[in-house]
Predict the structure.
Amino acid sequence: MVSTDRKIFEEGSDVRTRQIEYAKDWDEVHIVVFDKRSMEYGVRSKEIAIAANCWAYSTKSRFKFLYPFDAMRLGRFIMEKRGITDITCQDASLTAMAAVSLKKRFNGKTSNAVALEIQVHEDIGSPNYSFNWTNKVRRFLALNYLPKADRIRVVSERIKRYLVGTLGIAESKVIVRPIAVDIEAIKNAPIIAGGDLHKKYSQFDRIVLMAGRLEPEKNVKLAIEAWKSVIEKQPKAGLIIVGSGSQLPMLNYQCSRSGISGNVIFESWADRATLYSYYKTADLFLNTSLFEGYGMTLVEANAARCKIVSTDVGVVGDVLKVGDILKDGENGVSIVDWNARSVADGISRALITRP
């Protein structure tokens, strides 16, 4: 496996736990992880045994642009020593660069062909995906590497439709494996102390929740732009944004400049129990992402029976059915366009219909 997730080096992490379970289906699993020497996990030993049959290796790269090439070097060493039969990579661009190279190098040199699986977690078919030069490059690489895969694992039907319908990849090669969400655990989760948003922020009579990374592709700036129009109609409405990321200073400035700081509250990322309580006590969950491969928070909010207003991304049209009826008889999901007026109208309609 060629991976970008350095959390695998962290003992007890969810990533490591998932990989240990994954390894049970194989005789041996060897995971090469993109990692810089100066990073938190890069200072550790290059090879770490995380289970009796599973090992993780840091590329210990000097620079980020060397990640794929250092992964190729490590991968060659492992494949020469361990008799690897299958390769999987975590994305269709940079990790795929290393994986495709290794497949090409070793096919024909062993008694059995090495099978290549490419995982696709991002919606590379979205018209918004290439919103910056980095994603333009990633998409270019993906379109080159995906046809070379023996199988492709995707997280949503949306991505599968793009691969099959637009790229012409054989449907038999594409496997849909959604991100695991424990729906029953969310449904049965109690509202914990400090987790009731209306008690915590009693100054608001309507509360809208957002949760996720504060990065450009999450497009939180659109939500804040729309929020100014929302509070003109409902001045006691509050927007609670849970998450962290590089966009936080800019978003705070946007709120201040718009004069709505009193109606927008940023919280750092919460644990699962708190987030589940937030879903259950919010009047609405809002998502304004430019694109999502899956959209786990959408599934979680739906499981908590929280109304949703979202742009048309991820699983909104597949797992979540537009027009789903909540237990109080209201529509559960509304899809809006990528502009402030549409988002504001969607929020206002949903909040007005609250009993």
Q: What stands out?
A: The radius of gyration is 22 Å. The mean pLDDT is 90. The longest strand covers residues 115-120. The domain at 184-352 is CATH 3.40.50.2000 (Rossmann fold).
